[in-house]
Amino acid sequence: MIDRKGNYVIGFAVALTALIGIGALVIDMGYSRVVHAQMQDAADASAHAAVAYLDKTDQGLSNARQTAVDIAAMNVANGASVSLDPNSANAPDGEVVLGFWDWDSGSFTPSQDPELVDAVLVQPADSQVSGLFSVAAFGVKAWGVRADSIAVQPPPTPAGAVKCYIPLAVPECTFDAHPDGEILDIDLVLNPDGKDNVGWALVGASPNAETLRDQINDCQSTGEITTASLVELNNGVITTVLRTLGDAVVNSDTAWDERLWGEQPVPYDKSYVDKNGGYGNTFEGPIVVFDGGADCSNVKYTGDSKITGFAWAAVYDVVDAGSASDKNVRVRLNTLDEFTWGTQGGGTLDDGVEYEPPAMIVR
Fold first, then answer.
1. What backbone phi and psi angles, to 5 degrees, belong to 17?
2. How far apart are CA 163 and CA 356, in angstroms?
């Protein structure tokens, strides 16, 4: 009769070794995945928060770097707060790296040029995970777990919607007649009819004295408008609205900026704004751009028209006295700078009013 006790012992030893190995894989590797997830969450949160401070200034770069460090420290991985070295020298292998993202190639390039930087790479140092079962099974005492994240501020795009607007409109052909670089010299007037006019405009309401005054006093009165909306137009003189608009200029806390608007014109004769001590102020915001046809000399400010985009405007003078041709509003446009008042993208008309998409994680 064969004694099998020795075989049982050997079999048990082999099985025990296998079980320990399985335990190492299940428990230790499972914990590694937990630590990796914690590291990834910390890197994502840190990079995403930091990129919001990138504003094309050196101070913005410094703020972004410090924010990355601060946000990481608020996260815990492997039982300890995640610590980042700020990497002031911006070494490519540092823990906080500033740079720019190439959307075509999907690549990140380190940089400290504030005009170029739009991305933050966070790559914390490896977190050392101790093996509980792996030591017995494989002789592995610890191993490093790492994660990295790149957050980018996407570039602004033409606005497809705004929730706040001044109830004025200009035809799209205006921008065909005045290309970028000259647009700051345009002064739009309410009347007489002809080239370079501006008219009253509302979406979802008839542009009359009451509704126009409401919109001037509360630029969100008629709600969000989009390039899919129809705008109602009116080019008539409404004296009470002129005064409300003049008061908005007088009471504005925004002053004429020659960098944005060029040299300030002299006030109108009988200027309501000048008479009330507000000349030099501007009442600024997006106005409607509509499809007025190809010929700007024959634009009709009546009925409905399709919105094609939005332009940034400054109302700076108003006349509420004299003949009908004297009563006017003077508006200047700026299509050269980016004003991020859009509530969504999708616009096709690049006239200065932009939508700034939220920062996003790209890796």
1. -60, -40
2. 14
Sign of the C-alpha dihedral computed for residues 276, 278, 280 and 281 taken in this order = negative
Contact status, residue 326 vs residue 128, Cβ threshold 8 Å: no
Higher pLDDT, 126 or 134: 126
Locate the domains of the chain by residue range: 5-153, 158-357
Q: What is the largest CA-CA distance in the chain?
A: 128
pLDDT tens-digit profile of 159-191?
A: 999 999 999 999 988 887 776 655 566 788 888
Q: Cis bond leading into 207, ω under 30°?
A: no
CA distances from 294 to 123, 236, 290, 327 (A): 54, 22, 11, 27
Strand partners, 144: 128
Q: What is the pLDDT of residue 57?
A: 96
Identify whether the C-beta of residue 204 lies closer than 8 Å to the C-beta of residue 222: yes
Q: Which residues pair with 98 in a beta bridge?
A: 120
pLDDT digits (tens, 9 = 90+) for 145-162: 789 999 999 998 999 999
Residue range 40-60: average pLDDT? 96
User: Residue 351, SS3?
Assistant: coil
- Phi then psi dihedrals of residue 61, to 5 deg: -65, -45
Strands 161-162 and 225-226: antiparallel
DSSP 122-190: E-PPPEEEEPSSHHHHH---EEEE---EEEE-PPPEE-SEES---SEEEETHHHHHS-TTTGGG-EEES
Rounded to the nearest 10 degrees, what angle do helices 58-73 and 29-51 cross at? 150
What b/e sequence results for 13-31 when a residue is b if at least 16 CB atoms lie within 10 Å of its CB, and e otherwise? eeeeeeebeeebeeebeeb
* Range 29-50 average pLDDT: 90
